[in-house]
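Protein in question kept underneath.
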Amino acid sequence: MNKSGHSVIVFFLVIFFAATIILPHNVNAQDVVINEVFIDGGTKYPDWIELYNTSAAPVNLKNYCLSNKLDRKKWTIEFDLIINPHSYKLLYCDGKGKHDHTNFHLNGISGEVALFSPSNVVIDSLSYTDIPLFSSICRWPNGTGPFFVNKKPTKGIANQLGEHKLSLRAQADIKFSHPSGNYNQPFELEIYSPQNATLYYTTDGTLPDSSSLIYTTPIIIDKTTIIRVAAILDNTILGYIAQSFILNKETTLPVVSIIADPKFFWDEDLGIYTDGNNFKNLSGGNENWRNNKRRPVHIDYITQNGSWNVAGNIRIYGGASRGRLQKSFAIYVNDGPDKYGIKHQLFSGVKREKYSGIILRNGGDDWLWGQIRDGFQHILVENRVACDTLSYQPVIAFLNGQYWGLYGMRELPIKTNLLAKHKLPLQKVVILDGGVDIASKRGPFANISNIPAEGDYRKLLADMDIDSFLDYLIVEFYSGNTDWPSNNIKCWKAKSTKWNWILFDLDRGFNGKGSDPVDQDPFVSLLKNSKYNLMFKQLMANNKFARDFCARMVVHTLTTFKSERAIKILNAVADKVRPEMQSHINRWRWSWEFKRLFMSVDKWENNLDEIRDYCRKRPENILKFLDKHFLTGTTKNTEINITIKGKGTILAEGVKLDNGYLKGPVPQNIILNLTAVPAQGYFFKGWASNPEKSHLELKIKAGEIFKNCAVFELIKK
């Protein structure tokens, strides 16, 4: 045989053996199982899923899918990934979505893992809750048995017998003699065991196990105490439960008790509150608290009327304020089937009982100084502006039983909360956070290059909620917020909505830290901002936009921001937190910058006086700024006084007139549009003093005194 013949034979032999080695056999998809899962690692210990091939032949995992949800696929393996017979394959759950890294993370406090076959069938799955720190969930016997909690993970090798079998129940039927609450005297706490299980408990926030204290006799609660309990029967964890008992805390404010394994806060690797091992030097930049890693947490919410609890995940929240020792938190409770873990009313005046996350805000730049400046501004404009606000409720926080001071509880501006607020079903939502995103091709101004001086600007901004945009600008300008728009700017759009704007972080307004004086023009800084000016300079050159903006700002100035109204709201918020300010200041004033060392309640009261002074002086100055930039003219005293017969609302420039009333100076070049809006089931019949006028809208000139009665009648069925 010639040399070329030998070459052909060798070539075909190589191809034959290569195919024999790498091509998987046609196996049953169930030959591949989820063998072990590791959850809630830190920067050095990423979460992972271990798959195991139980068959005697290699399996190609291409087109298999993994997910952290049982009902939908998240990540498809789009490349050849061979798992040999009786071998393991590790996939890291870090959100990277490349190679052997999935595009999702595993949920901390409770969650799911699912493996889908190439034909989209779930072939293996797991649900879990309350997995102890540094433990994994593994099968025993290896590859075939049920799942156990394993305190010593066996990554990439045969599993060892776990300490306790995993319970899939969220909570055991463990009973306490006393609910979580605020108590004014000591008591004996009794705990009742389900199915005669042994109860193990801790009081430091760690999840209990068989090495923890065993409950045998009532526990004396004579100080603020948190308790976590595990029920274990026949080597099986039936479940966990946690309670908070606050003692001798005189307050009318709600109490938020945060319970978590201390390592999740203070460990140099895992802890979200510490500088951590990555901290390089005193200039900062690598501290643990700068990242957004989430850790599992239990929350007890305690009021004078009772308590409720929820499990979720917590992270550090905010920008520069993270550097303060009292840090802000974002708490997520969106792991359930409907995404809304909180089913309670959280904020006074907000008729809603559906939330997927909250913020515990330390006060931002107003921390210890005025403390309530941002919350006050949101209450001031809430339900009066078309842009989104963050509802505010002052609360007291405890972290693993330790007093953690005064916080402002706020709604977390995430997709599910925004949809719930607008009574929209779950759908795709885009949130743009920061000037770069908003000015990008993804943003609301992407397709707008030129705005003419004449014509309807609304057609050019057809994809934007104009009322939301106008109100957003008005609040920021009126506030005099100097930490905007280069920072603290956010908008969102759902599939079924237009672009809406979100107000947040107004600490540098209303005479706040680093804010401009009350008589300083707020328009100048935005007009000078070449990068993030929201096209305001181009828009203000459009006559119709200028009219709409000025007229709406005048109405807000005479109603929403009316000095008497603003000061009344400020005083009401201050009255709520005043009893707590001394304790709050004592807790934190020693902990940060020098000037706060000398903080006192008297100085806090003086800072509130500065806000009151701003409330009194800002309206007059705003009208001057409007005339300077828009030539609105001198003002004339104007009055609108409309009584209502039936059910309906009177709007001036789209802004609700409480009791149909407005009084104050209106620039002479502004004509106000007045609209009668019937309530559901009613129609507008007309104006009582002008029977011939039955149309909904009227125009009111500056200097006019308009008194009338709007008549609304029931629609006859």
